[in-house]
Amino acid sequence: MQGFIIRLQRVKDEDLILAILTQERLETLYRFYGARHGTINLGHMIDFEIEHSLKSSIGRVYDVIHLGFPWLLDPSRTRLWHYFISLFYPHLRESEETGGFYFALLKDAAERWGTQNPKRVAVEAYARLLRYEGRTPDRKHCFFCESRIHDPSVSLIRAFQYAHTDCAHRSAVDKHAADELLKNQSALFLSDEEIDTLWTTLLEGL
Ligand SMILES: [Zn+2]
After folding, report:
1. pLDDT band for position 31 (cuts 50, 70, 90)
2. Which of 28, 72, 162, 170 lies at a 20 to 30 A Cα distance from 10?
3. How far does residue 181's CA lie from ligand 1's centre (Å)?
4. What is d(CA 174, CA 170) in angstroms, rounded to the nearest whole number?
5. Sign of torsion, CA 140 144 147 151?
6. Distance 17 CA to ligand 1 centre (A)
7. Which residues hold their Cβ within 5 A of ligand 1, which is an ion?
8. Long-range pairs, 156-165, Cβ under 8 A, ≥24
9. In angstroms, what is the span from residue 8 Cα to ligand 1's centroid?
């Protein structure tokens, strides 16, 4: 099966516990050091098999093949990918049956990561996630003071909730561009500076 390594935890010596997001599930698996393996790193998409044994409650990962993306040769894109993919474990840790959405979201993002501004890809992916989870924000009212937002620009706080810039005390983005992002999951009208702002917000958590 295929999956993304969304968490990698080192346990005694060089053994690892991996959280792998597959097409349907979040798997927690053990990887023994010294076994023949492809490269195992945070964020990698791998093909692998699971072996269950009666002796252990946790399955063992084997026959690992790294399904690489060309941009992995670019350290800055790889670093951003690590930040992005690290957001998913805290978000999904309570679920075992995740369904196909999150894997497809990461696969689509990974395929665009090398040719587009990765932060823009991440921000669009997050808008899709919010819609999928039914968390699309109220775009008319301020999260803090609850009154209407009439300003041409707006601040987006965690979960991309809208707020007056004076209430949120953080950088603003164009409101029309933010509306387009959250209505149609398109970051087209956001400048690269605005994408930087939203990326910083995104890193606070999904
Ligand atoms: Zn306000």
Report:
1. confident
2. 72
3. 21
4. 13
5. negative
6. 44
7. 142, 144-145, 164, 167
8. 156/197, 156/198, 156/201, 157/201, 158/201, 158/204, 158/205, 159/130, 159/135, 159/206, 160/126, 160/127, 160/130, 160/198, 160/201, 161/137, 162/137, 162/138
9. 40
Q: Tens of pLDDT along 163-204?
A: 999 999 999 999 999 999 999 999 999 999 999 999 999 999
The first and second tokens of residue 95, run together, are 């679920």
**H or E stretch at 119:** helix 118-132
Query: Which residue segments constitute the domains of the chain, with CATH numbers given?
Result: 2-70 (2.40.50), 73-202 (1.20.1440)
Parallel, antiparallel or unpaired: strands 26-31 and 59-66: parallel
For residue 163, report the distance from its CA to the centre of ligand 1, in Å: 5
- The string of pLDDT tens digits covering residues 109-167 is 999 999 999 999 999 999 999 999 999 999 999 999 999 999 999 999 999 999 999 99
Q: How many CA atoms lie within 13 A of 24 on its CB side?
A: 1
